Amino acid sequence: MPAASLFSSSSRTASIAVVFLAALFGASLAFYLYGWGIIDPTNVHWLLTEGDPFQHFIGWDAFRRDEWRWPLGAIPQLGTLIDSSIVFTDSIPLLALPLKLFHAWLPDPFQYQGLVMLINLTLNAALACVLAQRLGARPLNAVLFAVLVALLPMVTLRGLGAHGHEALTAHWLILLAVLYSLSARPVGGWVLLRWLILMLTAVLVHFYLFFMVGTLWFAWWACQLWRTGRTKQWPGLFYLLAAGWLSAVLVLATMWAVGYLQYGLEVGRDTGFGYYSAEFLTYLNPLSAAWFFDGDLDGASRLIPGWITRIPGQYEGQAYAGVGALVLLTAGLLVAVRRGQWSEFAELRLETRVLALALVGLFLFALGDRWIIGKVVTNIPYPDWTEVLTQYLRSSGRLVWPLLYGLLLLALVILMYKARRRTLSVVLGVAVVLQWLDLADMHGFIRDNLNQRVAAAASGPPFAAITDPRLNALLETRERIDYLPGDDLEKLKPYVWLAVRHDMPLNVAYFARVNAEALLKATAPQVDAIQSGALEEDTLYVITNDELSQRACEIDQATCFDMDGVMIVTRAR
């Protein structure tokens, strides 16, 4: 088969049965890792023992109870001093917005964090299978490839039980973008529309996934512009320019509508661009700098020890491929060196070469302004004008994900067309077995971690404040909660929960990497009011600072009691 046709989407239609089988494995993996206790949407108390997943849940829980506003995703009652939205609680607007329409009929409370993991792992496997078949893989090889992709640690370690970023496990969005980039369909209305739908979907899931998808779309679109302009097809060129402009406008309008611009505080400046980057050898390093590797898990791999990276924040760029995936990549490389010809690269479709450049570009940007190879650190300063981009992509390490998919697909194609027919099946079979063995400890860590949380919360909420009769009686007679001075986010969980469950506004709340100093500045007027002897009758104060607690309790008509090291203060009526 000519190299130019290897990436053609005109290959035979993917078998529904084969894709279903791959999807079934993805769903089975989700149930194996998380169990029904996590996936059950009515089981919510375990989230109180989580970090980021609790933030994602509580944002949705507050949003579903509030009236509709503009922007549609606004949740001003959750952090009244912050003025935020479900975008910044990472509550996945793609689900939160339509589910709010059914608020009255949904169980209360209702969580979709576990369901998101089930959906994403299922779709990741299904799309990997579709891609493999579109590239010409036989059914068995397509399923084995999908299984290998579903097991990638950069997905399973990103989700519940580890990093806790459910939205970021939606790698089916990346795989769809790769599929569209490789398509040989003539450019027309449907091709442009499906790209637009994909970008709008991505922006409603997570900004970083949108950036990856958007980059691949831009590369594809620029490629079409160049080809159309080169052949002087002026109507087609105008059509593409108009479609590109309209796509950009609709994406920006969607971002505005769901609340991307609705944020009243700055994130921390001490961890700017380059801190949450990726190391150059991230695909080979199972240890990276993940924060949870300090506990019961020594690393993502049972077979490779790994090494500690120079920058602690590089856990965001953790993308260990797994021994099985490395076997596939190595086999592809060896066959390419032995049987490949450089002339074949020139025969590849322009879209394929442009896609490769986009994937490499994302990887290089993911390295940040300090490239790290082992113990060698090389500073690569970015010009000041790039800050308009880098300040919003501080967790740049995540952008290494698309290139790994591209490399795995490339290895798959090389083995399909350069090796014997049975070689690929053997390599993929061995790779899947080694991948599972290599990651067994990591899978056990995730399962045990979540099972313990579910078991601990089975008898009820893990915080006494949530069920305390005195506190709940006070909440029935007050209109708002002020958490002061606002920077102790470790003790905030039960009071966010109570504020949302009692439909009460709360002055501060959990948000992605919120700046503690900015919170202190925002709550300063409320703190000053207490220092001057003023307490509002309609407010329940939750104070974590000892000096401020003492001053509040000295105020006339103040009623105080301790709740697990936090002082509850109200003004007697």
Question: Strands, helices and their partners?
Answer:
Elements: H1 16-39, H2 52-65, H3 93-100, H4 113-134, H5 139-150, H6 153-156, H7 172-182, H8 189-203, H9 207-230, H10 234-258, H11 323-339, H12 343-347, H13 350-366, E1 370-373, E2 376-379, H14 387-390, H15 401-418, H16 421-438, H17 440-456, H18 464-467, H19 469-475, E3 480-484, H20 493-501, H21 516-531, E4 539-543, H22 546-553, E5 558-563, E6 566-571
Parallel strand pairs: 3-4
Antiparallel strand pairs: 1-2, 4-6, 5-6
Structure description:
It is built from 22 helices and six strands. The protein has helices at residues 16-39, 52-65, 93-100, 113-134, 139-150, 153-156, 172-182, 189-203, 207-230, 234-258, 323-339, 343-347, 350-366, 387-390, 401-418, 421-438, 440-456, 464-467, 469-475, 493-501, 516-531, 546-553; strands at residues 370-373, 376-379, 480-484, 539-543, 558-563, 566-571. The strands form two sheets. It has a four-stranded mixed beta sheet with strand order 3-4-6-5, with helices on both faces. The protein has a two-stranded antiparallel ribbon with strand order 1-2. The longest helix has 25 residues, at 234-258. The radius of gyration is 26 Å and the shape is globular.
